[in-house]
Amino acid sequence: MLIREATSEDWPAIWPFFHAIVSAGETLTYPLDLGEEDAEGWWFVAAPSRVVVAVDDDGTVLGTAKMNRNHMGNGSHIASATYMVDPAHSGRGVGRALCEYSVDWARGEGYRAMQFNAVVESNTHAVKLYRSIGFDVIGTLPEGFNHPTQGYVGLHIMHKAL
Questions:
Q1: What is the pLDDT of residues 13-29, one digit of tens each?
Q2: Which residues form the N-acetyltransferase domain (predicted)?
Q3: What one-character DSSP code corresponds to residue 26?
């Protein structure tokens, strides 16, 4: 698996799984009806932020990550990231590779920590993955997320010092 900078030519491969994940409404706080044009603008953020894709040996896009400052101004020393893995390629270590890549990127860019602001409590695979990479839950917003089948569940704030 190769992780490389994403380009606009990757968007047609990203959009189908991006749309499926967002519209399912189970793991992200994005609008469920987010259209393709707006979604591309939300995902492809300008520098110093970064967007990457994980691709296999054939060039198939397996997943993507968006890395950015968590806050501006005096809070700009904390990084954040968002990940999406094509469900057709789950269980192959794509999420772990993207997360580890983003931690290395943040460290290399001089960030002091990474913080995820809204990890859905019921997304147990993501919570377990992030914990295994060294993130801790530092707080939970009770009933901060309205899951389509589980109802109101917490949103974790997860942190890792770099």
A1: 999 999 999 999 999 99
A2: 1-162
A3: S
